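Open question from group meeting: does this chain pack into something compact, or does most of it stay loose? Before anyone orders reagents, we agreed to write out a predicted structure and look at it together. Recording both the input and the output here so the notebook holds the full record.
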Amino acid sequence: MHYVLPLSLPDKPIILASASPRRAEILTKLGLVFTVRPSAVDENIAATLSPAEYAVALARRKAGAVAAGVHNGIVIGADTIVVLGKEILGKPVSESDAGAMLRKLSGKTHRVFTGFAIVDRPSNRDVVDVETTEVTFRELDEAEIMAYARSGEAIDKAGAYGIQDASAVFAERINGCFYNVVGFPLTRFYLALRAFYAP
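C-alpha cells returned:
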C-alpha cells in the first residue's frame, strides 16, 4: 500500500519555478504532480542582506516572476546558497573556480541556506521560509579536488559540490536537514505548504 501524505491542496496546477532536477526529484517525494517552468530572473541581490534573507529574497523573486504569468496555480520557488564565514559561494564558472571553492571548504564547516517561496494564484497570497544546515568537510587532497572539478559535476552547484553525488565523501558531518544541502528542505516545505492551505 502506498503512503499518501495528508495534504489538502486546492485543485489547481502546481508549478516549480526551478530548472534544478534535484529539486524536482525531491518534490516528487511528496506525491505532488507539477510542471517545471524555470524563471530567468536577475540573481543580483543587495550585499547588505544576511545569507538567510538573501536566499529568501531570491526564492521570492523566482516564484514571483513565474507567478506573474500564471492565472491559476501554486508556484514554488527556491534558492540555495553556500556560506563560508561571511562569503557566499555561488556556482563556479570554471573548473579552476570550482577547485578554488573546494580548497576553501576543505577542513572547514560551512552553512547551506535554502529559501523557498509559495505563491498562490490568483489570490497572490504567499509564504516564505528558509532552512539552514551545517556541513563539515574533511581535509581534501589536491587529487580529489582536481578530479571532481574536472568531472563537470561541480559547475551547476552552489559551493562547487553536490552532496547527492560522489562529492558526498568530502563531507565528514552534516548537522541539520540533508535534503536542504541537496537543494530543497523537504520537511520544512511540507509543513509550510500544509499550513498555507490548511482548511
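Observations to bring back to the group:
The beta strands are 14-16, 35-36, 73-84, 87-89, 109-121, 126-137, 171-175.
The longest strand covers residues 109-121.
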